[in-house]
Every structure is written in structure tokens, then in C-alpha cells.
Design brief:
The complex is a heterodimer of chains A (138) and B (158). Chain A contains four helices and five strands; from the N terminus they run βαβαβααββ. Chain A is α+β, with helices and mostly antiparallel strands. In chain A, α2 runs antiparallel to α4. The two termini of chain A are 12 Å apart. The mean pLDDT of chain A is 95. Chain B is an alpha+beta fold. Chain B has a single domain, classed as 6-pyruvoyl tetrahydropterin synthase/QueD (Tetrahydropterin Synthase, Chain A), CATH 3.30.479.10. Helices cover 34% and strands 27% of the residues of chain B. Chain B has five helices and five strands; from the N terminus they run βαβαβααββα. In chain B, α2 packs across α4. Classes of the chains: A alpha+beta (138), B alpha+beta (158). Chains A and B meet through α1, α4 and β5 of A and β1 of B.
């Protein structure tokens, strides 16, 4: 059984490689490379797989899931400039792909438990663009 | 596993009608979609690319390249057109959303390498939403080849 919880955070970022010219960065990243950065309302959907506990009827206590998402993602990233304030985006480009993978790495150790496993992280940068990181076995 | 999904919008008209069926059979099978003069929808197309991220750029695919592929090979054909009459792929093929999704998957797959040269990604899914309530998805590994699909003759005009 799968359980999905959604959270939102707003952050700014800039996608460029310092060794490339403005024109080269624009070719690679398009308007995402605009020099002073820009922001998005990111929407994160986190999907866990597990079986309901026979006593509580829950796959995971949603309060616990909410707390993990708050501590690992919303707290550190909401209303931040990712490149300047959130590691590792001081050295890797905060593309949606990299942010989604980083969120996976933050969550997996806490959500992979004897009873549950992290199945998917879906990160919307806009309503028309999202990235999925999915557990290999799915 | 990493995938990126981009959503596109197009408006088009169509009519569902098979020459192999009588007027009343057509009305029974296709309902309002059999209306003689056709009708339109605001379709939402989601295209999913899956593969490996370029570790230098952090990109799975350059959005600009994906947008150009979808724009030139799909949206130009469909947007603000009558699918039955204006899209050559539907000569002899009924433009159900199932068929629209399959044809779009075929069109994208045909030109994929030419537009996304160098990116280590493959076309994984094509999803077409006809209305808020109807959506159809082609998972590429499981999809029949378009020509085979046409040959199978699902309501093909002669």
C-alpha cells in the first residue's frame, strides 16, 4: 500500500555553471540561468510503501511523516535562496533534478524503516514540470 | 530511477465515428462524441523522459529541447485543428484519446534522438487528459508499435 503526503515550499535559485558564458548558460538552462535568480512555489509529494500496522491501522503515523518533512525539507528550504543558503547547492546546480535527488537523500534514512520504505519523491517546480525519483525496485 | 515530466496544452476538435457501424450503432458506441459536426477539448499532454542526469549540469534533459520536439512534432499538428481532417495520422483512424495518446507516443519516439541528442533519456510515458475526468496513458515499454496498432485494425476506415 502507498501513502502520499504533500508539502509546499517557496524558494529562489539560479541555474548556471560558473565556467560558462551567459550565452552558454542560457542555452543549457534557459531563463533559469537569469543572473540574479528567481523563485518557485515548489510542491513536494512523498510516497511511502508499507502495510497498515495491525494495531493502529496506519502505515506510518502521519504526524511523524509531517515532522520529518518539516525538519528535513520545509524548514531548511522554505523562503531561502537555495544556492546561497542550502547545502549542497553552493557547489551543485539546484536544478529540479538535483533538488529532488537531494530531498530523496535527506528523507530515505528516516523513512526507510522496518515497516515502511520510501517509494517516490515527486517535486513540482511549476504545475507543468515535475521530477520523480523512484525506488529502483518499483 | 529519475524521470522528468513536462505538461503541455492544446485545443483541438474531433469526431468519433466508424464507417463500419450504422448511425444508431455509432450513436450507441460514441454517444455525444459522435455528433456530426465534431466538438473540441482542451487537451493536456504530459510527456515523461527517464534516464540519467548529466552530473555536470544537473539536467536530465534540456527543457528547451523537449519543448521544441513537442512543439514541432505534436502541438503544431494538433493545436487548433480538426484532428479527423487536419492530422494525417488520423486518416482512417478514429481520434479517440487512446489513439491520440498512441499516435503522439509514436511521433515523439520517431524524432526523440534527433531533438534530444546526447541526453541519456528515453521516452517513458505519454499521458493525454481529454477532460478533467478522462485521462489515458501510454507506457512506452508496454506500448504496441503504432503501425502494428493500426494494422490490428481497431475501427480503421477502409
Amino acid at each position: 500500500m502507498f501513502v502520499t503526503r504533500k508539502v509546499e515550499f517557496s524558494a529562489s535559485h539560479i541555474c548556471r555553471l560558473p565556467d560558462l558564458s551567459d550565452a552558454e548558460n542560457a542555452t543549457l538552462f534557459g531563463p533559469e540561468s537569469s543572473p540574479h535568480g528567481h523563485g518557485h512555489n515548489y510542491v513536494l509529494e512523498v510516497t511511502l510503501e508499507g502495510e497498515p500496522d495491525p494495531v493502529t491501522g496506519m502505515v506510518m503515523d502521519l504526524k511523524k511523516l509531517k515532522d520529518v518533512l518539516e525538519e528535513q525539507v520545509v524548514g531548511p528550504m522554505d523562503h531561502r535562496f537555495l544556492n546561497l543558503e542550502v547545502k549542497p547547492f553552493d557547489r551543485i546546480v539546484p536544478t529540479t533534478e538535483n533538488i529532488a535527488r537531494n530531498i530523496w537523500d535527506r528523507l530515505a534514512p528516516l523513512l526507510n524503516t522496518p515497516a515502511t520504505s520510501l517509494a517516490r519523491v515527486r517535486l513540482f517546480e511549476t504545475p507543468d514540470l515535475y521530477v520523480d525519483v523512484t525506488r529502483e525496485a518499483l | 530511477m529519475l524521470s522528468l515530466t513536462r505538461r503541455y496544452h492544446f485545443s483541438a476538435s474531433h469526431r468519433l465515428h466508424s464507417p463500419l457501424l450504422s448511425a444508431s450503432e455509432n450513436a450507441a458506441v460514441f454517444g455525444k462524441c459522435n455528433n456530426p459536426h465534431g466538438h473540441g477539448h482542451n487537451y493536456v499532454l504530459s510527456v515523461t523522459a527517464a534516464g540519467e542526469v548529466d552530473e555536470r549540469t544537473g539536467l536530465l534533459v534540456r527543457i528547451k529541447d523537449l519543448d521544441r520536439l513537442v512543439d514541432e512534432k505534436v502541438l503544431h499538428l494538433f493545436a487548433h485543428h480538426d484532428i479527423n481532417r487536419d492530422v494525417p495520422e488520423f486518416s482512417g483512424l478514429i481520434p479517440t484519446t487512446e489513439n491520440i495518446a498512441l499516435i503522439i507516443a509514436g511521433l515523439l519516439q520517431q524524432s526523440w534522438g534527433g531533438y534530444l541528442d546526447g541526453a541519456k533519456v528515453h521516452l517513458e510515458r505519454v499521458h493525454v487528459q481529454e477532460t478533467e475526468r478522462n485521462g489515458f496513458e501510454v507506457v512506452i515499454s508496454a506500448a504496441p508499435v503504432i503501425n502494428e496498432f493500426r494494422r490490428e485494425g481497431v475501427l480503421v476506415h477502409a
